[in-house]
UniProtKB/TrEMBL annotation:
Coiled coil: none annotated. InterPro entries: Leu-rich_rpt (IPR001611), Leu-rich_rpt_4 (IPR025875), Leu-rich_rpt_typical-subtyp (IPR003591), LRR_dom_sf (IPR032675), SDS22/Internalin_LRR (IPR050836). Keywords: Leucine-rich repeat, Repeat. PANTHER family: LEUCINE-RICH REPEAT AND IQ DOMAIN-CONTAINING PROTEIN 1-RELATED, LEUCINE-RICH REPEAT-CONTAINING PROTEIN 9. It comes from Xanthoceras sorbifolium. The lineage of its organism: Eukaryota, Viridiplantae, Streptophyta, Embryophyta, Tracheophyta. SUPFAM superfamilies: L domain-like (SSF52058). This is Protein phosphatase 1 regulatory subunit pprA.
């Protein structure tokens, strides 16, 4: 905020907030405001942040902020009916970022008016399906719908420029309708009910999270040759496979599964972080060969809560195998 006198977060909406009417950024985070009656809203704003207040309605004065690029109502008390007027706020058609995270929405709001939208965040609500996303502009680059009640991936086919898709903590059972997301860089699907990997032909993706699902196999990542980070912890995977082609992989997390050995990563030349803790790996003897391609690059390894971690020379052996190791489990070396 430029040249503003801010009250402390404990101040409420009955107290006046002094605003510089030439400001371009207004940040009212954590002011616990019930409304904006006491707030002067500069017509020059390009960013308005109302995070962590007690708002249950949208102040109509916001609809006239024709220069606005970023608008956040994160962590308020906004319901579907309260957000409905935003679909008619023509003056805001140039908005690039709309955040409605952590409110009381049960459906995707109508955001069709925003023709240049790049970031749309409706995570931590009570949304039961993705109906309505088809109206969101195809300029979108980041979409966040985590921690809702969504059972199916749909109405995303037109997001050809999308780079980040976050659908973690929903009720998804199937990976589907991803084939048109040719520019997707990050896919976050942790804490769902997915049983099998299906990336629908995507090959350029760099980060994938399928933690806390119902996977029993790693097959399905073979063609993702650009992949740099893969998170598969807390599943039911018993065998490491389908990883040998992932030559750009830097981070691999397969902790809390049912693995008995380390396999299929011997030819990965860039691996830096390897999480294998909480599995059933019996011996350290095969580790050197299993991770041969990244012995020089590996800097972090987790193997605690495996039978092999009980070995008396556990840490010494690992430090000998990996000359540049900086961390073994929670032990960090200078």
């Amino acid at each position: 905020m430029d040249d503003q006198t801010q009250p402390s977060p404990e101040n409420n909406s009955d107290q006046t907030v002094e605003i510089d009417l030439s400001s371009t950024v207004l940040d009212l985070t954590s002011f616990q405001l019930h409304d904006l009656v006491s707030i002067e809203i500069p017509p020059t704003l390009t960013e308005l942040d109302l995070t962590a207040n007690r708002l249950s309605s949208l102040d109509p004065r916001i609809s006239h902020l024709s220069n606005l690029k970023k608008l956040s109502f994160r962590q308020n008390l906004i319901e579907d009916a309260a957000v409905e007027p935003i679909s008619r706020w023509d003056a805001l058609s140039g908005l690039e970022e709309l955040v409605l995270r952590d409110n009381k929405l049960t459906k995707i709001p109508d955001a069709s008016i925003f023709k240049k939208l790049l970031i749309f965040d409706v995570s931590f609500n009570e949304i039961t399906c993705l109906h309505g996303l088809s109206k969101v502009t195809n300029t979108l680059k980041e979409l966040y719908v985590s921690k809702n009640e969504v059972p199916k991936i749909e109405e995303i086919d037109h997001f050809c420029d999308l780079q980040i898709l976050e659908l973690g903590s929903n009720r998804l059972r199937v990976m589907e309708n991803l084939q048109n997301l040719s520019n997707l860089q990050e896919l976050w699907l942790g804490r769902n009910r997915i049983k099998a990997v299906d990336l629908c032909g995507l090959k350029c993706i760099k980060k994938i999270s399928l933690q806390s699902n119902r996977l029993t196999s790693m097959k399905g990542f073979e063609d993702c040759v650009a992949l740099e980070e893969l998170y598969l912890s807390h599943n039911g995977i018993s065998k490491m496979e389908g990883l040998s082609t992932l030559v750009n992989l830097r981070v691999l997390d397969v902790s809390s599964n049912k693995l008995t050995s380390v396999e299929d990563i011997q030819s990965l030349p860039r691996l830096e972080d390897l999480w294998l803790n909480d599995n059933k790996i019996e011996s350290l003897e095969s580790i050197a060969e299993a991770v041969a391609g990244s012995r020089e690059t590996l800097i972090t390894i987790y193997l605690e809560n495996n039978p092999c971690a009980k070995s008396s020379n556990y840490s010494t052996t690992l430090r000998h195998i990996f000359p540049n190791i900086q961390q073994i489990d929670s032990d960090i070396f200078a």
